[in-house]
Structure formats: C-alpha cells, structure tokens
Design a protein that fits this description.
Blueprint: E1 4-6, H1 15-23, E2 31-35, E3 46-48, H2 53-62, E4 67-71, H3 76-85, E5 95-100, H4 104-120, E6 127-131, H5 140-143, H6 145-154, E7 158-159, H7 168-176, H8 180-183, H9 188-196, H10 201-231
Helix pairs in contact: 7-10, 9-10
C-alpha cells in the first residue's frame, strides 16, 4: 500500500493520530497530506481543502513513495462528493481507512462513511475499518457490535485484525508534538541515569514522566505493528 486515505464523518475517530503514527512511519518517504479547513497544525507536508480535489490527485501522481491522506471531518462530505464526480479517481488509492471509536454516534458515522464509499463505487476490499480507542475493560465484540454486524451483513468492508487501545500516550504526544516512532527511539538507560542524578523534585518528575511516556509508547507501538500486519490480511 502506497496511497492511503483516512476518512470518517466523525470528528474524533483518530484519523490524524493514525496517519502520523501508523501509516507515515511504515510507508517510507510517503507524503502526509491533510484535507482540512480548521485543524491543520503545520505538521503535514501538504494541506488542502476538500474542494482542491484535483490538486490532491496531482500530489498523488507526482509522489514516488505514496501519499497518506488525512481527510478532516469538516471536509469529508465535500471530498467524497468530488471523489464521486471524478469517475475512477478512487482507483488511484490503494485503501480507504475508516477508523472508529466506541460509541453510538461514532459507529453511526463510520457506517455512513462506508455506505458513502460503497455508493461511489469503491470496492469493498479497499475499505478497511480500524477499531480505535478500545477501553481495557471492553472487548471489540461488545464495543463495536453494531458495526461488526453491519459489515457481516453488507460485506462493504473488512475489519483490520487487532485494535488500538485507549491510551494516555496519544494525549501526551499531541501536547509535545512528537510521534510514537520518535518517543520509542529514546534510550531507557539514559533516562534512568537522568532520574538517578536529578538534582530537584521537578527535574526528577520530568524524567519519570518521560520514562512513563516511553513505556506507554512501546506498548502502543506493539499494537500499531499488529494493526499494520492485519491490514495486509483485511
């Protein structure tokens, strides 16, 4: 997979988090393109609006290493309309990723997104659903039961094996501007030395928080690796 689109009618499905932490690090050299009006933060290689659909196709055409497209909820309706109006344009993309969080509204939004892709003519084998934000006390079968039943009945997409757990690490990454890949490159041994040599409570607290973030990032990285492997099977 080189050219990926992440989209959902839901505004809190985790599209940007997955674009930056799951896809971009695993597609070497891929451009990160944000289709967004209000929430782009400058960390993308390309920022467009939904109406700039043909410009996005140009980016896809000239990129040798692929494009990860993060379609913001404020632009998804416009973007899908232009995808529909530009016949066969969906063939330029290898997969359409629909992340979904637990919750009745989030599941309804995911189903609406899958329905829209189906109506446009996107083949079901290109529509892949990632289960995101699963609480430790829940199972995917219960948290996403209506969505799983819908997919079983309609066959309009497939669920990627594995899931992304609800984790504090993603909030910490958003605050620091880092990615999972950047955090896990830290040397635990160096952090432990810094903790032992800290000269003040504040300095020690900062190092302990960094150690905790590293541990959470390593666990998240394992989940992301499992989901990436599952994408090839979905």
């Amino acid at each position: 997979m080189k050219n990926i689109v992440l989209l959902s009618y839901s505004g809190n499905a985790g599209k940007t988090t997955l674009a930056r932490n799951l896809f971009a690090p695993r597609i070497p050299g891929a451009l990160l393109a944000s289709v967004e009006s209000i929430n782009a933060d400058g960390k993308e290689d390309v920022t467009l609006r939904g109406r700039q659909f043909t410009e996005l196709l140009d980016v896809v055409a000239i990129s040798d290493n692929g494009v990860v497209v993060d379609v913001g909820a404020s632009n998804v309706e416009d973007w899908l309309q232009r995808l529909s109006q530009t016949r066969r344009s969906h063939q330029l993309f290898d997969a359409f990723i629909v992340p979904v969080m637990p919750g009745a509204k989030q599941i309804r939004d995911a189903i609406a997104t899958i329905d829209a892709l189906s109506q446009i003519g996107v083949p079901s084998d290109k529509v892949k659903v990632i289960l995101n934000g699963l609480e430790a006390t829940e199972t995917a079968a219960t948290a996403f039961a209506p969505l799983l039943a819908y997919l079983e009945e309609t066959k309009r997409g497939s669920v990627v094996q594995g899931h992304i757990s609800d984790s504090e690490v993603y909030g910490r990454l958003a605050a620091s501007g880092q990615t999972i890949a950047q955090v896990v490159m830290q040397d635990f041994g160096q952090l432990e030395l810094a903790r032992k040599s800290a000269k003040s409570p504040d300095e020690r607290l900062a190092v302990v928080r960094a150690i905790a973030t590293l541990g959470m990032a390593e666990s998240a990285q394992d989940e992301l690796d499992q989901v990436w492997a599952g994408l090839a099977q979905a």
